[in-house]
Write a structure and sequence with these properties.
The chain is an alpha/beta fold. Strands 3-2-1-4-5-9-14 form a seven-stranded parallel β-sheet, sandwiched between helices. The chain has helices at residues 15-26, 63-70, 92-112, 148-152, 183-201, 229-238, 258-271, 287-298, 324-330, 338-345, and strands spanning 6-10, 30-35, 54-57, 75-78, 119-124, 132-135, 139-141, 168-172, 207-212, 214-216, 244-245, 252-253, 255-257, 275-279, 285-286, 306-307, 320-321.
Length: 357
Amino acid sequence: MVTVVRVLVTGGAGFIGSHVVDELVARCHEVVVLDALHPEVHDGPPTYLRDDVMNLRADVRDPDAVAAALRGVDAVCHQAAMVGLGVDLGDLTGYVSHNGLGTAVLLEAMHRGGFGGPLALASSMVVYGEGRYRCPVDGGVRPGLRTPEDLAAGRFDPRCPKCANPLEAEAIPEDATTDPRNVYAATKLHQEHLCRAYEREHPETSVTALRYHNVYGARMPRDTPYAGVASIIRSSLERSDPPRVFEDGEQLRDFVHVTDVARANALALEAGVSGTYNVASGRPRSVGDMARALAEAFGSRAPAPVVTGEFRLGDVRHVVGSTERARCDLGFEARVGFEEGMATFATAPLREPVHAA
């Protein structure tokens, strides 16, 4: 167990980062927040920023600002990133700059400053690509990419690459082969690799890479293509528009509440263990289930979700994470159940969109 007193949280004004800050303060840690409050993300400082922490407004890609923020800290929680699947390849340099370069600048500043405490990295389940599958004939298999032709024809579920039988989705462990299938996923895996390189040169530093599954909760950004699917569905319901559910709505995800994710970060820093961990509820649901649960929470006048059959080539079909390693090593188990979480999320405050001048 590592004694942590002062923690630097990069991206601490963001959706997940701000909840990490709340959790760390509740556990009596001193917190320094480094956040650029990027104008494409924030219309100024959000109202939920705490006044009992040190808030530094600076970009994680600024070496001088990062070096100053690191002075006197015992641990680092790296949440700063450009998130979501994005719009198209026009976002490519933004993802690589914010996620790859930002992490490199942070690690170099840690190296130059002689930092040797624990580092918790916000990674993502998107690094897996498709999840784990089992064929009734050939056992565990890894399906290939879904083709535009199959998706357009409504053939959404991958089939066995050996015998073409239907596959059953299983929980994917952390040691599964990674297969990032979009730019965001590639940059999240790059962050992991950079942090592991730092750890090899600084064995006194433990690196805990937390692969978040589908995080939802208060302070999610509304009305943006970079938000998670839960926020997009909720934004539709607030406009009284029927939520549009892609494919057939049966794609499986693990929806984990942001307060559970924040606690996983605190446990990782306090445990000081090196490893990679799924941060998930362990109780997967379909995207259609999520949309229906949110609509039900909105009440009888809410429009019913519409399953559209639309698809995005960057999406995968089923990703269900194994939670065994996080439970054993970190003592982490999700506390917020799906029904409770969706009911509270229906009325939780969201972060307002940035308005063009």
